[in-house]
Design brief:
heterodimer; A: Aldehyde Oxidoreductase, domain 4; Aldehyde Oxidoreductase, domain 4; 3 domains; five-stranded mixed beta sheet; about 25% strand; globular; B: alpha+beta; Ubiquitin-like (UB roll); 2 domains; about 15% strand
Chain lengths: ~775, ~160
């Protein structure tokens, strides 16, 4: 094929206009006649026995149509699946409860559901439900929860729900060779996804008795899980996914869907449920806090010889995706470095905090903060500059990951990305104010794209060329705002030589669109991009072969450009695409194709000694920042922020830059301001007045540098960028703070208070 | 409590509807089909529900529908009909200043009203002007660029 026509061009997404006018209908923008309004009664306590639930008074309230508690749910305790085709075994997957039964394990846990004629009546009914609790002591610190005799959150006799390990070489011998050893403990907090659209949806039963759920979800394959809860055949529950107002992993687990299905099934009426902001923050998953004990040994020249890491993740009250996230952290724990002797041990532990699960980065940002802080410490201690110490230790193409031994057969753009990011900072900002200190920091990292290979991931897509030359795509792909849907249009436009405006895509519907798998794990460009490419190329081949026959030329001489099939790019010698389509139709040649793309499949590893391939591939990046620290107030201003990633191929550079810019600021919030504060299981930050995320005045002009090695496994050599983009920035910022004022903050966020306490240590320790 | 009748204009169109005294302008607008006005927090903290009322931007979740009686309201959808609104929308589309799109209508409304009063701001002023509108996806870079591109165009036409 000739050079790209649409791929690689910064073009507006197919749905951009519907978003600027507000025409696009999200989950909450849709109603049905006669619909009921649902509300959820939530636990006031983080740990308590439920002695009794009295719904009598609430039931008497005029306008109340249904009240459900755990006893009304056929299969209340359940394991959510995420569309994968393998069984990994008990304990490894998303165990949760639909409604609290006999006990509550976290504040905000759902206890009862109400459906009523109006939202106001539903709210009033919540107040009339009397739940008698007997508060229990609970446990809120994962390290405490691991100790023998600790309060037990679940029923298994231990709070530890997952243990993982990996490594290579001999750790003792490795440290014996070290000339310098750094030992430190790093901590990261709970954080919220803070998407602007809260969880919501509407459900109804159609003419054929099928439960239809119109919902914003990253995983429409949950239709099976919802059907299992109700004891219905899978084909009696249908998800119609809407465009999401952000997801970031928070709409990966089931949110409102099961509640909607239960209530519409009970009342036989349409039911709508949309969470308030407070409810959203209280009830959906959080990013895992980790306590990370690291010991790293190096030679005087900066060469790493040994790394020992122990990671403890707070799983909160139910497993959900904690074991998976912990596995990611384990594999990522040694970073993108060649270290001959490595040992990583990790575990996730139940507590009575809000449950934790997927959050953009999925276990990659936490260890990255630890190992990149340590690399910076080594660089200062050994007087090897921050770029050089990474250059002499980083992975390169053909080398293997130090944790699992997975060999990088694809391109590894290290140290290239680090060199580019560091250089792009340019001349330092001049500052003459005495209380304002300037500093710079660098961090590099890696993160997988595509799901764990032992889950046997696949995606499907359908493409049809219409008789008038327009195209219809059907793909189950959910779009959380990253432009996942538009990307498929761009691939088909490229392959079939038609403009984007000639394409109509139907997406995210479990009844009508081929299942494309989850919009998680930074997998859609890779997985559904490849499935769509495969389908489009099959149709392209059929059309070109027909045209070759009509023109009596070799098919290799043909290309489709602007709806014309050209011979040798000669504008005067062509067949209109429509004419060839007609000929295909007359000859009975199929101009539709549903294709499936499979990721590499591996067997489930020994989780305590993970070896070999666990992910299809990784994305490598670097971030460099310049900050100003106010030594009087502890206030930090990020003056410059450079983000550089090897994205393989930027199919739509606008979207890729958008991910890199947005991911940087998502990570900047993590570094500096964001924390869901829980005091003994009580969420103290349930609104945007307390849970602060960056605003326009807090951010620098992010400079995104795209390296396009073409070395990815996605279409045209693309790699995934959504999650990797946010996973490196925190240590870059904290290393810059150290450079500015000589203070190393080892727990996020690096709040002004922590900076001041560290700067005036003598004063505070008196 | 009894219902009151509220009459006002939205995007140049007269609307008359009974409301309960406690109903917010946000709920009133969405109930009447103006779903481009988004609900992100209902506490005046996120800016997704921003509308223009008599040339001022207002977070419609913290204003009562009754307080908007007789007023002239513009939403993102209505701005399509105005030259500056249309230019901003076009600039957002071409700059790629849109990801999930949930904050977009509110930010366009804020930007339009701001540029009406200060047609050629610098980027720092634009950042301040939109600092009451949260965006979680973009990191604000392309949003500021999109608004700035319209400001630059304004400068050329002066």
């Amino acid at each position: 094929m000739s050079e790209f026509k649409i791929v690689g061009k910064p073009i507006p997404r197919h749905d951009a206009w519907s978003k600027v006018t507000g025409d696009l209908k999200y989950a909450d923008d849709f109603s049905l006649p006669g619909m009921l309004f649902a509300k959820v009664l939530r636990s006031k306590y983080p740990a308590a026995k439920i002695i009794s639930i009295n719904i009598h008074k609430a039931e008497q309230l005029k306008g109340v149509q249904a009240i459900l508690t755990a006893k009304d749910v056929l299969h209340n305790e359940t394991v959510t699946k995420f569309g994968q085709s393998t069984e990994v075994g008990k304990g490894f997957e998303g165990l949760y409860r639909v409604l609290a039964d006999k006990e509550v394990r976290f504040m905000g846990e759902a206890v009862a559901l109400v459906a009523a004629d109006t939202e106001e009546i539903a709210e009033e009914a919540l107040d009339l439900i009397v739940v008698e609790y007997e508060p229990l002591p609970g446990v809120f610190d994962p390290v405490e929860a691991m100790k023998p005799g600790a309060y037990l959150v679940g029923e298994n006799g231990t709070n530890i729900i997952g243990e993982f390990g990996c490594g290579q070489g001999d750790i003792e011998k490795g440290f014996a060779k070290a000339e310098v050893i750094i030992k430190d403990t790093y901590k990261v907090p709970f954080v919220d996804h803070a998407y602007l659209e809260t969880e919501g949806g509407i459900a109804w039963i159609d003419d054929y008795g099928v439960i239809n759920i119109r919902v914003g979800s990253q995983v429409i394959e949950h239709f099976r899980d919802v059907a299992d809860v109700l004891g219905l055949p899978h084909n009696k529950v249908r998800y119609i996914g809407t465009m999401m107002g952000g997801g970031f992993g928070g709409k990966e687990d089931i949110t409102v869907e099961t509640y909607l299905a239960l209530l519409t099934w009970k009342t036989k009426k349409p039911v709508r449920l949309v969470y308030t902001r407070e409810e959203s923050i209280l009830s959906h998953s959080k990013r895992h806090p980790f306590i990370m004990k690291y010991k790293v040994g190096a030679k005087k020249d900066g060469k790493l010889v040994a790394l020992d890491a122990e990671l403890v993740a707070d799983a909160g009250a139910y497993p959900y995706l904690s074991p998976w996230v912990t596995l990611y952290a384990t594999v990522n724990a040694a970073g993108p470095y060649c270290i001959p002797n490595v040992r990583v041990k990790s575990c996730c532990v139940l507590t009575n905090n809000t449950f934790t699960s997927a959050n953009r980065g999925f276990g990659a940002p936490q260890p990255n903060f630890a190992y990149e802080s340590i690399m910076d410490e080594l660089s200062h201690k050994l007087n090897v500059d921050s770029l050089e110490i990474r250059r002499i230790n980083c992975l390169t193409t053909g080398k293997a990951l130090s944790t699992t031994g997975q060999v990088f057969k694809t391109h590894v753009a290290l140290p290239e990305v680090a060199e580019k990011a560091w250089a792009a900072l340019g001349e330092p900002v001049e500052c003459k104010e005495e209380n304002r200190k300037i500093g710079r920091g660098l961090a590099i990292g890696l993160m997988s794209y595509g799901r764990m290979t032992f889950l046997h991931d696949s995606s499907r897509s359908y493409v049809r060329l219409e008789s008038d030359g327009s195209v219809l795509i059907r793909s189950g792909i959910p779009d959380l705002g990253g432009g996942q849907v538009s990307l498929l249009c761009q691939i088909v436009a490229e392959e079939l030589g038609i403009p984007m405006s000639r394409i109509k895509i139907y997406y995210s519907d479990t009844a009508l669109t081929p299942l494309a798998g989850t919009t998680t794990a930074t997998r859609q460009t890779y997985m559904s991009g490849n499935a769509t490419l495969k389908a489009a190329r099959e149709i392209r081949k059929r059309v070109i072969n027909k045209a070759a026959e009509m023109l009596n030329v070799n098919p290799e001489k043909l290309d489709i450009i602007n709806e014309k099939i050209l011979v040798n790019y000669d504008q005067s010698k062509y067949l209109p695409l429509v004419k060839v389509i007609k000929a295909c139709n007359t000859a009975g040649i199929e101009l539709f194709c549903e294709a499936q793309f499979n990721a590499p499949f591996t067997i489930t590893p020994d989780l305590l000694n993970i070896r070999g391939m666990t992910f299809p591939d990784f994305t490598f990046g670097a971030q460099a920042v310049e900050v100003a620290v106010d030594t009087e107030t502890g206030q930090i201003e990020v003056l410059k922020l450079v983000t550089c990633y090897d994205v393989g191929k930027a199919i739509n550079p606008l979207s890729v830059e958008g991910q890199m810019e947005g991911g940087s600021i998502y990570g900047m919030g993590y570094a500096l301001i964001e924390e869901v504060i829980m005091e003994k299981g009580i969420t103290m930050t349930p609104s945007f007045a307390e849970y602060i995320i960056p605003t326009a005045v807090d951010v620098p002009d992010v400079k995104a540098i795209l390296v396009e090695s073409g070395g990815g496994l996605g279409p045209y050599g693309a790699k995934g960028i959504g999650e990797p983009s946010c996973s490196i920035i925190a240590p870059a910022i904290l290393n810059a703070i150290y450079d500015a004022v000589g203070v190393r903050i080892k727990s996020l966020p690096a709040s002004p208070e922590k900076i001041i306490r560290a700067l005036k240590k003598d004063y505070f320790e008196k | 409590m009894e219902d009151y009748i509220v009459e006002l204009t939205v995007n140049g169109e007269r609307i008359s509807s009974p409301v309960k005294p406690e109903e917010s302008l946000l709920k009133f607008l969405r109930r009447n089909g103006f779903t481009e006005v988004k609900c992100g927090c209902e506490k005046g903290e996120c800016g997704t529900c921003t509308v223009i009322i008599n040339k001022k931007t207002v977070k419609s979740c913290i204003m009562l529908a009754l307080q908007a009686r007789g007023k002239e309201i513009w939403t993102a959808k209505g701005l399509e009909k105005q030259e500056l609104g249309r230019k901003l929308q076009e600039s957002f589309v071409n700059t790629g200043a849109i990801q999930c799109g949930f904050c977009t209508p509110g930010i366009i409304v804020t930007a339009k009203n701001y540029l009406d009063q200060n047609p050629i701001p610098d980027k720092g002023e634009i950042k301040k002007a939109i600092s009451g509108n949260l965006c979680r996806c973009t990191g604000y870079k392309k949003i500021v660029d999109a608004i700035y591109a319209v400001a630059v165009e304004n400068q050329k036409s002066i």
